Amino acid sequence: MTKYSSEFKVKLVNEYFDGQISILGLSKKYGMPSKSPIYYWVHEAEANGLNYLITKKSHKDYSQDFKLSVIEYYKLHKISRLDTAIYFKISPSQVNSWIYRYNHYGVIGLRRRPRGRRPLMAKKKKKQTRLNSTKEEKY
Q1: Which of 8, 35, 71, 105 fits as disulfide partner to 27, beta carbons 3.0 to 4.6 Å?
Q2: What's the whole-model pTM score?
């Protein structure tokens, strides 16, 4: 569940684009604890348009190659993580997470991890009920 609705995001970005109030002024006006979400929304709207501020409802899995290409782009161009996220149209928290895992675990840290809870007990092998055939029967 998102903390701020899409309508609220668009409203704040439009107020900023009108030029009457700064990002810090908007955060104080609406009682937000930080100005960074508004900063992100404004840059995202400038790069991709206001329609991109609408929250996405689907979960997407990214391949190890895609994650590696995001990290390589970030290191090669020496730009901020926010700008990298906007370029690839993903969340900045995903970029932060992937860079952290890459720096601590290497390429292996970018692999997909199995979902769900591990089983508590190992599954027992089924007993073989079928009789083995003898050499004479095989002949």
Answers
A1: 35
A2: 0.59
